[in-house]
Design goal:
The chain has 690 residues and is an alpha/beta fold. The protein contains 24 helices and 15 strands. 44% of the residues lie in helices and 9% in strands. An 8-stranded parallel β-barrel has the order 1-2-3-4-5-6-7-10, surrounded by 8 helices. It has a 3-stranded parallel beta sheet with strand order 14-13-15. Strands 8-9 form a two-stranded antiparallel ribbon. The two termini are 26 Å apart.
Amino acid sequence: MVDMKTLWRIALISVLILMISTPLFIADAAVQPASSEKVYFGITFGGTTVEQAKELIDKVKSYTNLFVIASWTIDGGPNSSALTEVCDYAVAANMYFIVYFNFIYQNYTSSIGGRYNATTWDDYGMEPWHRPWLNSAKERYGDKFLGAYLYDEPGGKQIDCGYWNRYNMTFSGAPITYFRNVTTYDGATRAYVSSIARSGSMQVLTNTSYRYNITNTVPVFTSDYALYWFDYKVGYSAIFVEVGNKLDTKGKMTQIALCRGAATAYKKDWGAIITLIDDNPPTAESGPTMLKDMTMAYEAGAKYVIVFNYEADGQSTLSDEHFNAMKEFWNNIHSSASSHGKFWGQVALVLPADYGWGFRNEKDRIWGFWDADNKSSQIWENTNKLVEKYGLNLDIVYEDSQVSIEGLYRQTYPWNSTLNLSGPWLSTQAYVLGPVVGSVGAAACFSTYWITKRKKPKKTKMQVEQTQQTSLPTETMVLPQPTIGHPDSKTQETPAIKLDFIFNSFADIADPLFDLLMNLNGSADWKAAEISLERCKLAKVLGAESLTHNLSFQALATYIKKQQFISTKQECESLIKTLYQNALALGSQGPPEEAQKFEALNAAVRFYFLLNDVLLRQALKDKEVERGRLELASGLDCFSEERTTNLFAEFTSTLRNKTIDFLLVGDSRALLRKQFCRLLRYQQSIRKGH
């Protein structure tokens, strides 16, 4: 017959094995500090007249803050008057703006192909006004002028046409020779990057030593549907990933993973532009689909969210349903429930260097010159598996000797990995999968949804008799003020209060750390974060040193002070792991009788951790939270012993009540802490023979 102590030990060993082999799942918030930087939401203008531009500005100015002037008739007109009038009007409406250029007019001092030099502009009835206009834009518009949109879809055109500017002749009439002798992928990379970066227009905007440069360089943007990594290598400030193009949800997530992964590695911004679903005839997405795509990009951390407004003959592809979707999106992102950056790249698929593959289907082209090769199928398969598992938490990056991704991701998957993925991940919502590092025998963090399926063990006759003779205390013991310094040492703490004192020490630090994680969801309240930090510091001073000897809040304090969103979240999670490991390690190094004394404490710590995780998932509105509630209820049922009062009956009833869709954080914690302390004192009284 196996006694209760042995059963507890077996259960704990089983859980520890699970914990050592299972990563910690903590629902994550965002990759970018949404509360500390502006998100630009707007629309493109492709009309032909100033009046059309003003009409569109008037229509959208109450629910956008960005206007992209993408009209070659205006941006490439004979002089700057039309563009200046539109920009003045946008700024008067309190909007930011970006100006599209297919190339920058320059007053060359030498003839290039007989065109565009100092003596021939008059022949075209034009003046090279771009550089003077750009020179004056900063002073005239200040930070409302965000920069220049230069070229369009260079990566996509490279894949589809074999040249990033589509045409095989330059504007001066000379043939394109950049890719003439390219025979390798790395050669294609060099040709692509250098030909764009060294183009006259890009040099004007970005190179301060270029002889035709403007006074102050400006940020340079473009939209694309392929080769984002190489666009950033060119020197673009931000790329707008095209969301649309007949892609399904998984395809859109893949494109976001490619663009955001490149932006993260290059430490640049990124955005999304909602494009047409068909070009012939030009057709926009439906309003609901557009809203869904804008929200997806926003929650993935896009700094720019733009709606492409195709116009022809004064007619737009957008209708009232689209403008209504834009209004709804604007209201959503400015509500208290804003979720910018809710998902971020926490794991990454690493592609081979210079692999300029289109990524739209398994047979897509490579650099526009080669058919899919023997790597394409495996990359395609692994990409789909990873998107299915991690959703918007996946980035896709490249091996690149010039760009380091070290420390950016919790886990990376080489492109040729043999993936065997399992776990409760959703295709549209995914959370962090953080590896736990620890030696065998050390207590490690366990899966948030910790599941132990064991039946209540039958009691031995001795246990039944012991239970019948012993009743649980009905009043909560008032703990004496602990001694600061080493409150859990033998000379400063009596065994009578050790277990519940240690448990309360754990909870006093765990609670504010989890509160901080909840606070980081959506718009972070840094004042509240400082309060959580102070609670942690005080709890460390007053708590059990065995739990806190290796906890330092210095780094967390620095990150909070600097309002560094990602670092704050990661440091908070690290502290929770350390605290949890400390708690479960108590008694593990001593003799068996010492370990037995901590069995109930370890179980209480695990279930209290699980409660906090359920509360966190509830704050993040995770659809799996109900599952967590039921698992917590089942675990507490097993924790309660037969023939004794079920301390957790009230709480487990609440957990299982489907009409109660949320738990009160303070009340839930207070109730569980009270009952665990009662149980710990009860267990201690049995061991002491009281």
